[in-house]
Amino acid sequence: MTQPLRILVIQHDPARADMLTDALRQAGETEVMVLPSDSRLASRIKELGPDLVLIDLANPSRDALEELTLASSPADRPVAMFVDRSDPALTRAAVEAGVSAYVVDGIRPDRIRAVLDAALARFHMFQKLRTELDATRAALEQRKIIDRAKGVLMRARGISEDEAYALMRRAAMERGRKIADVAAAIVTASELLQ
Amino acid sequence: MTPALEIGFMPLVDAAPLIVARDMGFAAQERLDLVLHRAGNWSMLRDLLDLGRVQAAHMLSPMPVARALGLGGAGPGVETLMVLSMNGQVVGVSPDLARDMRAAGPDLGFGDAVATSQALRSARPDGLRLGVPFPFSMHAELLGYWLGPQVTLATVPPPDMAAAIGAGDIEAFCVGEPWGSQAVELGAAELILPGAAIWSQAPEKVLAVRAGWAEENADLTGRLMRAVWRAGQWLSLPQNAPLASEILSEPDRLGVDPEIIDRALTGQLLTRRGGELIRAPALLEFHHGAANFPWRSQAAWIAGRMARRFGLDLRRAAEAAQAIWRSDLYRQHLADLAILPAASSKLEGACPVPQAVGATRASLILSENRFFDGLIFDPSADN
Question: Where in this chain does the record put each ANTAR domain (chain A) (predicted)?
């Protein structure tokens, strides 16, 4: 069973908001919230925590969403746009560029979920890439610290690189800690002793 | 056949050179058909340019710089062909805050940046939430420079500024006309300072294109730049202000009463509802003092402020920004029309009175250029 998708629609025109809400609800497992366009948008979105924000391409409050995106926290969420008139070239170009997903107004209810799912999938893909990049960076940092700790041990004890690494691994296992933590402790201690 | 160019703009008085270039026939004179698209927000305008839906756009001067600095998401490079307008921002406060400021001191007038900031500080010692139109805007940079990093900036679209201050979401704002005057008209705000009092030569809006477009379309670029330049010259003549206000007031342009647009174009503002019109010199400039020339030092100043705000390397930021500020293209395409300065970079803030400088022909008088605190920005130094 899929989790209901929590979608926030930003639309100040009640008639249009209703139309979109109906289409989204018909599309299936969806919880729809509606906010009028307003200047407190950023804090409201944080409170509501939707999976996806749907906003007019031309909506003035989109700039406030940009500010939110700029703050770029992990809580970032995908923003899909819907455009007034069907502009196939613009829509295709936008989706290909990965700027956002553009949902064309008047879309058939049976198509809307697919478009939104695509927007979410794209977002999660980018987020995964970003997480992987962060993990790679962290791993690199750890490698550097382990190398420095090895150097400290090699000089202090007159042992080989392999022996230094084995020593750290044993210390980590005995204390139930990670090698990187042991290495960081050695580096810190050596800096204090200098 | 007359080629067509799609241009995006935001509903602001400083979009006038683009609107006038089309409606007063300066584009047609260059055998160019301008198709204008009004955008609902700055992000949309940027996306339309990125996606090739428009070929050129009216942009906040820091927007192309932000792209060059890798801020606010990736995308194709954007370049600045020319400056469309100088200054034009106004700072407004809620009637409550205005009353508290008056209670604390004498009448501040309209233009004393130092006294006004002191009055703001003493009226709101615990800080202040100010609305700006976009995270990357001259408004945000000027406020940060003037009031320091303590103030909280919130993004509020220009047409919503009056409603936001009326609802108490913000207590003050910096916005481009006519939206400051509109807020005054609705009784939601009083104007306390023109942007020009913070920096008297702040490049406000620019004409932006995608990187490489101007080289691929050199002929079109030249025609577009000349049409816009002539529109700026036309706008600088006082007798044209009434007609310009009418043109801009059309529903598919700004959709605001011509009387309110008139204020920015004539430099006469109403600072509060029911008050008197006051003269605000250098409020908004489209032409005089080489206003359209994209000085690389302007890009360096913007980049420097942004680098501080977002923790980037100052020197690298300045270099990246200057590279997309195309004074070379301006020289190439406007040599026959405009008087070109001999240099492409200058000391910003070092011109307390109008000054003649070296130029290609005749002489060029640059307008007063000073920062409120008297500092001088040298783009070749690590500021």
Answer: 126-187
